[in-house]
Amino acid sequence: MASVSYENVTKRYSGDTLAVDNLSLEVKDTEFMVLVGPSGCGKSTALRMLAGLEDITEGQIKIGDKVVNDMPPRDRDIAMVFQSYALYPHMSVYDNMAFGLKMRGTPRADIERRVNTAADVLELGPLLKRKPRQLSGGQRQRVALGRAIVREPQVFLLDEPLSNLDAKLRVQTRIELQKQHRALHATFIYVTHDQVEAMTMGDRIAVMRDGVLQQVAPPREIYGNPANMYVAGFIGSPTMNFIPVTVQGKTAKASGFELELPHAPGVEKGTLGIRPEALTEAPVAGHAGLDLKVEVVEILGSDQFLYGTVGGDSITARVDPHLKVQPGDRVRLGVDTRRLHLFDSATEKAVL
Amino acid sequence: MSAARLLRPFFLLVLTAFSLVPFWWMLIASLKAGDQQLTSGNPWWFDEVYWGGYRDLFAGSLFRTWMLNTVLVLVATVAISLVASCLAAYALAHLGVPHGRSLVLVLFATYLVPQGVLFLPLVRLLARLHLLNSPAALIVTYPGLVIPFGTWVLWSFFRSLPRDLVDLARLEGAGPVRTLTVVLLPMAAPALAAVGLFAVAVVFNDFLYAFTLIQSQQDTTLMGGVGLLSTDLGETGPTFAAVMLGIVPIALACAFFADRYAAGLGTGIIE
To answer: Which of B161, B167, B168 should one mutate to test binding to chain A, selecting the residue with the greatest count of A CBs within 10 A?
Structure first.
């Protein structure tokens, strides 16, 4: 098993397109690391450089303690699962799973044993003779994972492996993948644009934007203490409320309300960040609260979201689903001031 | 809408009949005695079946030799074209050839150059290589007409496949040759069929090169031979017979591969 480290890695394409900008990231042995960000943020490029499918422009990547910059992909002891699954349509499930071992000249008996073992684990046994087109999406996904497992690699690279599954199957497979991760005792590096996948699966999450790493931390930390406005807005659904404020000492002044901050942040202009669940329908002692003019009500059963405005700012609040609210109502909301965030207007970095 | 649907079979029938008329006329002509073919009688029907044209063709000419030469040229053209197109298309699509896309366009643009312009240099070149008057002259010429098209079709096809398929092969340690032979070619059947059929059409549609590059009777192909027949034997029966027999292989090829040809071309259109 092995750790992976990116040391000041940069990827520049012909011209001046900067795909990955000075990335430094340590992935620990057997860790489940999720790289998350919108499309074009460099997460897939980072993964493909590790796999050896893209050259590294600057910096170095290590697997274990070996620098792999100039090592051919096949010698890196990695296996990759692609978003498209990359199953060969003319080969049976068995041949697809055996492909990597065959290419490496593994003895026949060995191949058979390893493919059968993996097939048992993933419940693919009865499907081994079928062609990929005869399989459902979920089965194809398992074959793609099985093909990686039979290789017994040190590091698994997964590039959006759940994106082509329907919502229900995605949740099941998410859980399945976490079980496999524990059973295999291998390092997983998982790329996704889906913040829910990132939050639910990652031991740690690395958020990327425009080729630059924004923050690396465990899910709780990323959610509770986002390093900047981008991370705060990217993680969490519905997204965090951002309200421009002017600050005087400990008082933050928005267009429709005033709040006492826990301590003076030392900036004059900033953006206040309040997660929808930090707003409560019950007033909190010690401040006047927010007067929300409700425009849209969404009831999800377990939650109720109110969308509306306070002064000139749009606000989303999560409230008790039993609270009866109509569009057009005015609701007085309390704020949990321990869960406030404040971002510097100039740098967008968290200052509270 | 319903009127159009009613008219469709009728319309298709007319079109089919229209395209079959020349073949029917030729079949009738090949089955008539020498003096009746073009001058008298009903050109759309025969009074009695006359096999003389076919008999004379086999007895009095080098028809069998021409057929053999044609097969030789055909097999060599198809083989050379497929191999060269595959290698070129794979390299241009997946091996990171600089300006690969522009190169494919340039290759394809060569079809805009009129063949007449290329003809004299080609003859001089073949003369210097001492290839004139042998089937080899055609074997090196025809692939030149097929490979640009073949490269374009296969290039489009290879690019239309998910890139992951090639990346995976690379991760698993398959080199370029095995990636091509084990991974890509088994999936490329429709595109290969399209290129192969195009090559067959090039060989069977050509009269210019066959007739001019090879003057000796023994070394020419069916297409060149038909040209010789019509001047040498003075009688049109064997000519029509030869044309009829020459059409059979390509008609069969089209009948069996037309769908795949269309499918193969379709992969290019996605691009």
So the answer is: B168
pLDDT in tens, A107-117: 999 999 999 99
- Strand partners of residue A318: A305
Cis peptide leading into residue A238 (ω within 30°): yes
Predicted pLDDT at B129: 93
Q: Which residues pair with A190 in a beta bridge?
A: A34, A158
Cβ–Cβ contacts within 10 Å for residue A163, how many? Answer: 13
Residues of B contacting chain A (CB within 8 angstroms)? 162, 164-165, 167-174, 178, 183, 186-187
Q: Which domains does chain B have, with CATH numbers?
A: 1-50 (no CATH), 62-270 (1.10.3720.10)
| Pairwise CA distance, residues B109 & B66, whole Å | 33
**What interface predicted TM-score (ipTM) does this complex get?**
0.83
Per-residue pLDDT tens over the stretch A125-141: 899 999 999 999 899 99
Which residue segments constitute the domains of chain A, with CATH numbers given? 4-228 (3.40.50.300), 238-344 (2.40.50.140)
Mutation target for B interface from A82, A83, A95, A101: give the one with most B CBs within 10 A: A82
Average pLDDT in chain A? 92
The alpha carbon of residue A77 is apart from the nearest alpha carbon of chain B, in Å, by 10
